[in-house]
Write a structure and sequence with these properties.
The chain is an alpha/beta fold. 46% of the residues lie in helices and 15% in strands. The protein has helices spanning 33-44, 76-94, 111-117, 145-153, 155-164, 170-176, 188-199, 204-219, 222-238, 240-250, and strands at 6-11, 17-22, 52-57, 100-104, 107-109, 121-125, 129-131, 168-169, 181-183. The chain has a 6-stranded mixed sheet with strand order 1-2-3-4-6-9, with helices on both faces. A 3-stranded mixed sheet has the order 5-7-8.
């Protein structure tokens, strides 16, 4: 489905990076069902050239969460199916076709934090703040936040946020684990795009393993995780591109790791 609240463009010499931008700036990019479904569909329809993506929000905020003006009264069954719809959509980011870098600024609140936590790398600028106000509104996270956010910051911190309404600023949020990068105000998108272009140069199977295998290995008992690792390593190194890259390194045609 299409949405006027979502903008899509391609970057890079080979159009290898997709930029997906929330465009409800007047609503602080609050999420309604149409926008969530548009995100799902957009990630299902990337051109074949795309090897990494950036998700951004127009205006002063990344995403202020669920659009409460569209909150409907639902019975338990309807609420269950609505939550599962969000799960399906955000799984298309986390376990979709390409790695996703989030460019965070301003509000990363409620459903906006759930959206950010479904991405693989998060870049925050100094205006960013994080909150989960669902606790004070008598509701509970329903977009996968109870699974993804504790993996970033721990159960205790998430419990504190929802029980007390605690808000993390950009600096404390980066230390807590919400974002892997903290950059000056106004530069989150540029940094996210830079990272996405770098990620797009990786072998596709390596990126696939990091997106799809690594999170599952982390959840497995060690013996099963080691077997999954061995299988994924065998598959990745058998790809022609991997063989070419190793040969280039051994021949001295590839750069060695050095301090940045």
């Amino acid at each position: 489905m299409t949405s006027t609240d979502l903008h899509f463009e391609l970057h890079g010499e080979e159009q290898e990076v997709a930029v997906v931008r929330l465009t409800r700036g007047k609503k602080r990019n609050a999420l309604n069902d149409g926008l969530i479904l548009a995100l799902r569909d957009q990630f299902d329809q990337f051109p074949a050239s795309v090897r990494a993506a950036v998700i951004d929000g127009e205006g002063e905020h990344f995403c202020a969460g669920l659009d409460l003006s569209e909150l409907k009264e639902r019975d338990a069954g309807q609420g269950l199916h609505h939550s599962r719809m969000w799960h399906s959509a955000l799984e298309r980011l986390q376990f979709g076709p390409v790695p996703v870098v989030a460019a965070l600024h301003g509000a990363v609140v409620g459903g906006g934090l759930e959206l950010a936590s479904a991405c693989h790398i998060r870049v925050a600028d100094e205006t960013t703040f994080y909150a989960l106000p669902e606790g004070s509104r008598g509701i509970f996270v329903g977009g996968g936040g109870s699974v993804r956010i504790p993996k970033l910051i721990g159960v205790a911190r998430m419990t504190d946020m929802m029980m007390t309404g605690r808000v993390y600023n950009a600096q404390d949020g980066e230390r807590a684990g919400f974002a892997q990068y903290l950059v000056p105000t106004g530069s989150a998108f540029d940094k996210a795009l830079e990272l996405a272009k770098r990620i797009a140069t990786n072998a596709p199977l390596t990126n696939y393993a990091l997106m799809h295998a690594l999170p599952r290995i982390a959840e497995q008992p060690s013996d099963q995780g080691l077997m999954t690792e061995a299988l994924m390593a065998a598959i990745a190194q058998s790809a022609p591109e991997a063989k070419d890259r190793v040969r280039a390194f051994l021949d001295g045609r590839a750069a060695k790791v050095s301090k940045s």
